[in-house]
Structure formats: structure tokens, C-alpha cells
Specification:
Length: about 375
């Protein structure tokens, strides 16, 4: 998008995933009768990355949401119709186009001269259906609309989406909605980097790769298997008088709560917050530490169970909802979350140096 010289992408054949990522930013995008373009990531528990949020969210008539959820393949004529291609060339014209561009002719003028009129795009017949059925940014609403419609196109589409990862379908819808508010492509890519860092840690990506690429049984066991199973667990640090400071009892209860959340297949996400208005968690409980010799404290390894069972075994996404102080261990606990929601009163800090110690727990 920022490169000054014109870039021409000849999309002659399969153009999927990363192929869309490198062709999409090109100023000139050439489709042919051989073009098969798709963003099929939802089938392996991933989301339409490499710029997919930017390209798909800006297609008219909710076509981007349809492509993101179904992984549908567009031919060359449909790419031109959708705006994903700027030109349509017969295959036999590619060699001449490339030769003339290499010889120094203006690329756009060459492509304009050699372009042919594409055939009628088959998907255009369903444009109104797509706009209506995919009008919502909630996966449950889209599935419900497809079920109620009941027509052949809706039935085929519903069956396709039900084979995809419910989690990453939801992520994709949120991704496309968020991308529309971003100022430029670079900001979109930064957002997708953050999403990727989280989604790759979820079980669906490994399961999708296994089912589609490694074992090729095409029978992924998504977790959760249905979008309605993604209920939310609320976990509250409940020591408001102590600013929710973390002592051994709180740590043990926190580990137990996260273990129960991880084992419950009906729960898709957890929200961790602090009781009261003053603090999320004001760090480790210094009073508990003060009663023990330093050697005994370190031999006990205050955070061993926490690190072994909470951090390493919690695969489902969880959110730290921070209101007030998140200091020391409380700050580090929040940073372990997949997503951090900070109220306007949130204050993060690592004040351990004032006590003569370094930040711990990953600080």
C-alpha cells in the first residue's frame, strides 16, 4: 500500500491464504479463468490473517464475512465482480502482458489493452442472500438466519460453516468489524499479529492442522464444538480489604478455579477480576512473606503450583478485567491473560524495586 512503484499480481491459479496476503496489496491484480481465490483458514482453526481483515471487511454486501466463515473459492470472474481483482485476462494473454511490462510499457495501460470481459459471476446470483444472511457480526445470529431461510444456498452454506472452528469463526467476525475502524493497513497487520499470537495457543489450530494437513481425515474435534458452548466463567479475587493481595490461599483457589474452568467443556472463556473498586490485585501479600525467613520462602516456591498448573495448562482464552491497582504480582497476573481490559481507573506498576527485589512471576 505504501510502495511507490506499481506492483502487478498475476493470480493465475490457486491464490489462497498467504497468496491473497501478497496479492491483495498490489495496485494491479490480474485474474484469469484459472484463478481460485479463497481465505480457508477457518477450516484449520485459524482466522483470515495476512491482511484478510483489511481486504475482506471492505468488500460490499457482507461478502467478506461470507468468505471468512465459509472459505468459499472465487473464480476469476467472481474476483473481478467482488473487487479483489482489477483486470481479467485470458491465459494466453499473460505472456504478452508480462513481456510488455518488462519492456517498460506502463503496466496499467498494458492490462487495460489486453483485458477481456469476464463471464457472468455465479456468486452474484446470491449477493442479496449473502447481505441478508450475514448481516450480523454474531456467529449465532448468522447460523440462525441460515437455518430459518432453509433454501438450497442457505442449507449448503450452513452445512459448510458447521464444519469450521466455531471459535475462529467468531474471531474472524470480530476481526473484520474491528478492522473497519482502523486507520490504515499497518494498523490492521498489527492487530492481526496480536490475534495470531493468541489463536495459535488455542487447541483448534493444532487440531485443524492435524485433521486437514497431517492425518487428512477431515474430521476435526473442535473445542468447543458448537458456538453455544462458549459460556463465560467469572473468577473474582475476593480480598477487597487487602486490595486483593495474593497470598498462598488465594493462589491455591485461583489455580483450582482455572482448573475447573479448563475441564468444563461448556465454558469457552474466563474473566478474572478483582473485588471492590480499588484494586484488581495489589501484588503478593507482603504480610504473609514477612512471617517467613527468606530461605524458607524461596524453598517453598510461592508460585510453583501457580506456574505449573495455571499458566502452563490453561489453553482456553481468558480475560483480565482490571479496575484500580494492578501492581507487582497483580500486574504480572494480568499480563498472563490473553486479553486485558483496563478501566479508566486502572493503574499498572512493578514496584518491587522499592522492596529490594526484582519483578517476579514473569515480570
Amino acid at each position: 500500500f505504501a510502495y511507490a512503484k506499481p506492483v502487478v499480481a498475476f493470480m493465475d491459479g490457486i491464490t489462497m491464504g498467504g497468496g491473497v496476503g501478497i496479492s491483495g496489496p498490489a495496485r494491479l491484480r490480474v485474474a484469469t479463468p484459472n484463478t481460485r481465490l479463497a481465505m480457508p483458514e477457518s477450516g484449520i482453526g485459524l482466522f483470515p490473517d495476512v491482511g484478510g481483515g483489511w481486504f475482506l471487511s471492505r468488500l460490499r454486501g457482507r461478502l467478506g464475512q461470507y468468505l471468512a466463515l465459509t472459505g468459499a473459492r472465487l473464480d476469476g470472474a467472481e474476483c473481478v465482480w467482488a473487487g479483489l481483482a482489477t483486470h481479467y485476462l485470458p491465459v494466453e494473454g499473460l505472456s504478452e502482458a508480462k513481456a510488455r511490462i518488462i519492456a517498460g510499457e506502463v503496466p496499467e495501460a498494458v492490462l487495460d489493452a489486453l483485458s477481456a470481459t469476464p463471464p457472468a459471476p455465479a456468486l452474484a446470483e446470491h449477493a442479496a442472500d449473502i447481505a441478508r444472511l450475514f448481516a450480523s457480526d454474531r456467529l449465532e445470529d448468522i447460523l440462525a438466519a441460515l437455518e430459518v431461510d432453509g433454501g438450497p444456498f442457505a442449507a449448503r452454506t450452513l452445512a459448510t460453516i458447521r464444519t469450521k472452528s466455531p471459535t475462529t469463526c467468531k474471531v474472524a467476525l470480530r476481526q473484520l468489524a474491528a478492522s473497519l475502524a482502523l486507520p490504515d493497513f499497518a494498523a490492521n497487520m498489527a492487530m492481526e499479529y496480536r490475534i495470531g499470537a493468541r489463536v495459535l495457543m488455542l487447541p483448534d489450530f493444532a487440531e485443524g492442522v492435524r485433521a486437514v494437513i497431517i492425518d487428512k481425515d477431515n474430521a476435526p474435534a473442535w473445542n468447543p464444538a458448537r458456538p453455544q458452548e462458549g459460556a463465560v466463567t467469572l473468577i473474582t479475587l475476593n480480598r477487597p480489604k487487602a486490595l486483593n493481595a495474593l497470598n498462598s490461599q488465594v493462589c491455591a483457589e485461583l489455580v483450582a478455579a482455572f482448573a475447573a474452568f479448563e475441564a468444563d467443556d461448556t465454558q469457552g472463556c474466563a474473566v478474572l477480576t478483582g473485588s471492590g473498586e480499588k484494586a484488581f490485585a495489589a501484588g503478593a501479600d507482603i504480610k504473609e512473606m514477612a512471617d517467613k525467613p527468606a530461605a524458607d520462602f524461596f524453598l517453598q516456591d510461592f508460585f510453583a503450583d501457580w506456574q505449573a498448573r495455571l499458566v502452563k495448562t490453561t489453553r482456553k482464552p481468558w480475560i483480565a478485567a482490571v479496575n484500580g491497582f494492578a501492581l507487582g504480582g497483580g500486574c504480572e497476573l494480568a499480563m498472563m491473560a490473553d486479553f486485558i481490559l483496563a478501566a479508566d481507573t486502572a493503574k499498572f506498576g512493578q514496584p518491587e524495586i522499592k522492596l529490594g527485589v526484582a519483578p517476579g512471576m514473569g515480570g
